[in-house]
Design brief:
By secondary structure, the protein is α/β, with parallel strands linked by helices. 34% of the residues lie in helices and 24% in strands. It has helices spanning 56-66, 82-85, 88-92, 104-114, 183-198, 202-214, 235-244, 263-278, 294-303, 320-331, 351-361, 379-394; strands at 3-6, 9-11, 14-16, 21-22, 27-28, 33-35, 38-41, 45-48, 74-76, 100-102, 120-122, 128-132, 135-141, 151-155, 160-164, 221-224, 229-230, 252-257, 283-288, 306-310, 338-345, 365-366, 371-374.
Amino acid sequence: MKKHVKNNVYWVGKVDWELQKFHGSEYSTHKGSTYNSYLIEEEKTVLIDTVWAPFAEEFVENLASEIDLNKIDFIIANHGEVDHSGALPALMKHIPDKPIYCTANAVKSLKGQYHEDWNFRVVKTGDKIDIGNGKELIFVEMTMLHWPDSMATYLTGDNILFSNDAFGQHLATEKLFNDQIDQCDLFNESIKYYANILTPFSPMLRKKLDEVTALNLPIEIIATSHGVVWRENPVQIIEKYAHWANDYKENQITVIYDTMWNGTKILAEKIAEGITAADPEVTVKIHNLAKSDENDLITEVFKSKTVIIGSPTISNSILHSVAGFIHLMKELKFKGKKAAAFGCFGWSGESVKVMNELLANAGFEIISDGFKNQWNPDIEAQNSAIAFGKTIADK
């Protein structure tokens, strides 16, 4: 069932209430998601994006119940990733000759995934298509936000930016607009989406935001590819992105650890106690990596000015969970953040040195040689961990 966005623009996507993992199993979606597709019915009828492949047949059936598929004049593929393009093969069986407008890289992506030579029309930033009734579609390449093929499409007259993966969130809802849902859920999912997907591209995002601003296009609605449509003060999410893209941090220190026999856990809690004692204003959060969701932890790292990582020594190194998490942080290219390491050991005690090297390699400023303790922490060791936390707060 299509939902009205504005004038002759409709949402024709799919709400996926059951989605728990995305990008394979790389991204947790505790609140599901949506795959947003849009239909514009002016003198020209335009379909913008489709839905993920598991819902392809359902999508085509629903679309055919709303409109004669042969009346679609052309399709816009803002991004070739399968959650946006997955229904194209099913749709194109019905309208095989209809043009598909996309970037040159999107042609490569779509051909590479579906092995079909559809009627591709390559566009670049500034290209326009007249769709009648005095309205045009203007294309804006969004390279590396978050794939090389990404672009956005702007509809004049209605002043709608179809932003694709920018400004979205993984959030299943029957409500279409940002002002209709819980604002805490909206912004929690928005910052998680940015932290886990767009952080590595922050320098490019800053430039792209400037480029979009320079086009001087009035934006009354931002129609994303996931989550809600921004209609109430849509510029607020652009402002958030500009803030988040600028090496974002809050007054927060996050302690993340894994442990074998709870010694490192005790150190984590005592270090946090010391941080709070030295600076009652700072927000301190402690997370056991083995019992936490990695994407939620990445969001906490994104918000933090300092991250304290803990692991016991095992096999002259660290727990593989901690090594993997530091690697994940490295992939996301965090900037302007500080770090320190800690851990218990029984015999050789290399974990802190290993973590320091990995954290430095991941782009963090190492602010301490770290804290390590042999065997289970006694009262003296616990007091030393508190003192270590105080020094971290000072730094």
